[in-house]
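User: Before I run my own analysis I want an independent prediction to cross-check against. Here's the chain; please return only the structure tokens and, at the end, one sentence I can use as a sanity check.
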Amino acid sequence: MLKKDLIRKFVKSIDKDFKVSFTDTFEVDIPEEHIYITFDHDKELDKMYDDFLYEQFGKRYNVFLMSLLHEVGHIMTYEDELEEGRDIIYGLLKLNYEEGKSDVAEYNHKYFLIPMEFEATSWGVWYYENHKEQCDELIRKLGV
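Assistant: Structure tokens:
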């Protein structure tokens, strides 16, 4: 089975109505329940996310799988208030970064802590911990 088909099947096992497309980044269209996946990896960003996951959850996780589950988590944990807060905090973080007041590591760490982002990641960790066999099988089959 192709990697894309494996991922679609995995996501559909979480919710049959979720749509999956493949692009150049991980992202989600929450109202459309459409998850966008990439196979491109930025090793530096992957390391930052891996370090964040370890710092917050005390365990090393597969970064590809957690990125996928994070996007699903956005749909599963969505609240209007979280999105409004995210937009404000994200705007301030981006401005500080663009003005040279923070480096990429600090920017990403603070971004991961934005409540909406943290909730999505927490959901992803919860899902992994409660569906280890399914998640580990997907990792194995994808070879990531």
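Sanity check: The helical segments are 3-14, 43-57, 63-76, 80-98, 104-113, 115-130, 132-142.
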